[in-house]
């Protein structure tokens, strides 16, 4: 179908806003699939950007995998990781020389600068110091979210980035997912008129909640960061990004209601492996989740020999937090969280983060004066009040040259691709999530947590 026919079939109201950026593939009468065009600012690279990964856990591995898939763009030449198993695995994957393998991030900076950039994917409470040191030594930085555990540290990193002139790309990967990119583009092009209000929902999914925020690394907000930042600064950022107006006030409510000792079933034990009488019927059974169903086992550092996996998993469940009863952890993260935000020009937004769902993927509703949008990351439905027509758009991240294995709707690797180009050209304009662009949503998160604890509407001051 050529451009003229596509425009005719979509209709005047939405057509002009949709056609000028990419080709659409018709799926049915009112449904089209789309991909995003390559950034016109991209330039051919004479050599790959070199990076040192500080923190070779889940997120460090995701970004490192980009280098394995696209070695002509990115090369990992160093790693700092205290976990011996992960250090060795990461080093082997990227063929990192012995002298560039470190067990402490501080060791990286004891040497003169030896790479173009660093990837900081350490635990939340370990972002600040390595980032500040990297910037001082002249490295560009790909910084996993959240930026840092406190507002002051976030602002300090922003100041240091401006002082040194280095690039700090915050891993707000949803900004790079084709689904959200299209959503923002349509709003900017007036597809639904002036935005009046936004409703955004993050269903964490009950087993993800138990894994990461009850048993996992983020179970204690005092040791890491509050869940509104650890999990949902993505969402505050996306709301801010698509509305594209300054935030003014925020109010939040939520608590830890279910994963508490008083809710432990009769017959349950400290660990799922201790002879718990209700383990087989418990929806949060660690044995069912990790051993029987082999879900999220990457955290258990399993050996390459799969014949040993069953034995190793059970041993890990007996010795780590991942085998503990979800009702008997030292967790304090809320399992439901609701925020209301007022932006400039009387635009309002509500955001709900919920643990108790059987499904994941964000849901968003955007209400405009001339139309509305409803989406779940699989499809975006746009209705034009002026024409009465409905259009369904299906993002196809898998069509973006090998990025189908990237998470967050394709955003993980698409972020890295932009970061590589930005570093290569020394042009932060290739990124949408530089620290100066990303910091406001973090301030929103800090103020939301303050509001939740103090039961008070909080002003957002930038």
TrEMBL record:
Keywords: Signal. Coiled coil: none annotated. Residues 51-171 form the Gfo/Idh/MocA-like oxidoreductase N-terminal domain. One of its GO terms (molecular function) is nucleotide binding. Residues 184-443 form the Gfo/Idh/MocA-like oxidoreductase C-terminal domain. The keyword Isomerase does not apply. It comes from the Bacteria. Residues 1-25 form the signal peptide. PANTHER family: BILIVERDIN REDUCTASE A, BINDING ROSSMANN FOLD OXIDOREDUCTASE, PUTATIVE (AFU_ORTHOLOGUE AFUA_4G00560)-RELATED. This is Gfo/Idh/MocA family oxidoreductase. It comes from Pontibacter burrus.
